[in-house]
Amino acid sequence: MKKVVLHVGPSKTASTTVQKFLSEYEGSAEYLYPRWGWTRPDAGHHNLAYEMRDDARFNPELGGLDRLKQDLETGRSLFLSSEDFPIFAPAVQKVKILCDAAGYELEILFFVRDPISRLNSMYTQQIKTFVENSTFTDFVARAQREDKLQLRRVVQDQLAQIGVSVRFMPFIGRKLNQIFVEMCESYGFSATAEDFLHTNPAPSPEEIALYRQIGHLMEKSEVSHWEASNRFRKKYEFNSKYFGFDQWLIDQVREVLAPEYEDMAALGLGAYAEELEATFWTAKPKNTNISDQGKFRNFKSDISTFMRL
Fold first, then answer.
1. Contacts (Cβ under 8 Å, ≥6 apart) of 247
2. Same domain as 302, residue 278
3. How many other C-beta atoms can be found within 10 angstroms of the C-beta atom of residue 178?
4. Is residue 41 part of a domain?
5. 5 three-class SS
6. How far apart are CA 61 and CA 177, in angstroms?
7. Residue 20: which domain range?
8. Nearest CA among 69, 68, 62 for reference residue 80
9. pLDDT > 90 in the chain, percent
10. Residue 166: enclosing H or E segment and its boundaries?
């Protein structure tokens, strides 16, 4: 049966890497990766996502549900990607109606990442792009309620009620290139592990700590966070791992999200279930504090002064 795949991300699961590969793909494939609906250089179908969500950023000239309907008339299976795609059932229903009318199956593709790692990455991403200006603990309190962290209750169960299947894939860092290869080939795109070399710069452990503790001030800065942190990281010789989470916060997040992640195999992750669970973060003494707090206070002070905060 012809199929429409909505790769919904979620955020911080290397969606941009997938979008870059598919947007540049020149080989033959069973699935088409449409060239409309792109709003940013990462070539994701964010404009379609905005229309599904009734988001004010939707631009009719870039194409949305209208262009999707046209492509469904070609008889080609379609692969669309945006971490902005909603998984709220009434929003997904807008695409489901078009698929049903054209005789297509609709599938949601969802990558599962350790929720602790993902929350930490979400915060640092929003701080460095000046989207978020709250303290880290306030951010986590809100983010725990995010729909894409609720794997069973919101993602799987609600979409099943409207007849939409969800394909869960594992986010395992050391195997991610090969996992992307397997995923793409399952949809008829020829790929190699070298096609998915990760290009996004990852924050250093010290930057993560920095974001957490002065993040709510960074929106006022006129200086790049990369420039500031790189300027002083070597001076202070920070190289120990610091994850940004205190133990009490890890326990709190685990308590809220444990029911959603308690059985990876039940989500259809099969052979990857144990490997994925092994990536889930556990606290170690050196990860939950920086031993020389005086040194770290000086580090923050230098950064704040340099960034004119």
1. 283, 288
2. yes
3. 14
4. yes
5. strand
6. 35
7. 3-113+148-196
8. 68
9. 51
10. strand 165-170
The domain boundary, picked from 196, 231, 266, lies at: 196
- Residue 238 sits in the same domain as residue 188: no
Name the domain count of the chain: 2
User: What is the tens place of the pLDDT at every residue in 66-124?
Assistant: 999 999 999 999 999 999 999 999 999 999 999 999 999 999 999 999 998 888 778 76
Contact 252, 206 (CB under 8 A): no
Kindly state whether residue 247 falls inside one of the protein's structural domains: yes
291 vs 147, residue with greater confidence: 147
Distance (Å, whole) CA 196 – CA 205: 24
pLDDT in tens, 218-241: 556 666 555 666 666 667 766 443
Same domain for 168 and 219, yes or no, is: no
pLDDT score, position 174: 87
Residue 135, domain member (yes or no): no
pLDDT digits (tens, 9 = 90+) for 136-192: 677 788 888 888 999 999 999 999 999 999 999 999 988 999 999 999 999 999 999
284 and 222 within one domain:
yes
Say whether the peptide bond before residue 10 is cis (omega within 30 degrees of 0). Answer: yes
Q: Which residues contact 144 (CB under 8 A, 6 or more apart)?
A: 119, 252, 253, 256, 257
* Helix count and strand count (H, E) for the chain: 13, 5
Residues 6+ away with beta carbon under 8 Å from 278: none
What number of residues does the chain have? 309
pTM of the model as a whole? 0.80
Q: Considering the chain, what is the average pLDDT of its residues?
A: 82
């957490």: which residue's tokens? 212
Confirm whether 252 is domain-assigned. yes
Name the domain boundary from 164, 196, 228.
Answer: 196
CA distances from 58 to 45, 46, 61, 65, 148 (A): 11, 9, 9, 11, 21
- Is residue 160 located within the same domain as residue 218? no
Contact status, residue 99 vs residue 76, Cβ threshold 8 Å: no
